[in-house]
Design goal:
elongated; 7 strands; 144 residues; three-stranded antiparallel beta sheet; 3 helices; alpha/beta
């Protein structure tokens, strides 16, 4: 794989109850320390950014796989939940693929395999798994 580089910049103002502005090539968002940790909560926090990265990587990988298989996808959505506890960090992806009404059983099975394949191929998810994060995927394929 070719080396991929990412550059980010954060300008922070106001101490722990302030906030920062994170910018990258295609991203600009406020970041802040969560209120539960004494911060302002006026922006996304590091955990949300990390989970967002894992979710974005997963759905982009899944999209690529579905398109390469030439499946008649009408809609693709994902809900992701994350939790941190004494036992560890867990991420649960719940992708939902809606195929065209005339999709075949082979299309449905191929989409189901893509759900699993995207989990195995997502680079961000694989990095997190190496760090001990548990990632679970419970996908659903339906017809329009």
């Amino acid at each position: 794989m070719a080396e991929l580089k990412t550059n980010l910049n954060i300008v922070w103002n106001g101490g722990k109850t302030g906030k920062g502005t994170l910018t990258a090539d295609y991203l600009e968002t406020d970041v802040a320390i969560p209120t539960a940790l004494g911060g302002s909560g006026n922006g996304t926090d590091p955990k949300e950014l990390l989970v967002s990265s894992a979710t974005t990587c997963y759905i982009a990988t899944l999209t690529y796989m579905l398109e390469t298989r030439k499946l008649p996808v009408v809609e693709l959505t994902i809900n992701t939940a994350a939790s941190v506890s004494n036992t560890g960090f867990n991420i649960a992806h719940a992708p939902q693929i809606v195929l065209a009404a005339d999709a075949t059983e082979d299309h449905v099975q191929s989409a189901e395999r893509a759900i699993e394949g995207a989990d195995k191929s997502c680079e961000v998810g694989n990095l997190l798994k190496k760090a001990g994060v548990v990632i679970e995927v419970q996908g659903k394929v339906s017809l329009k």
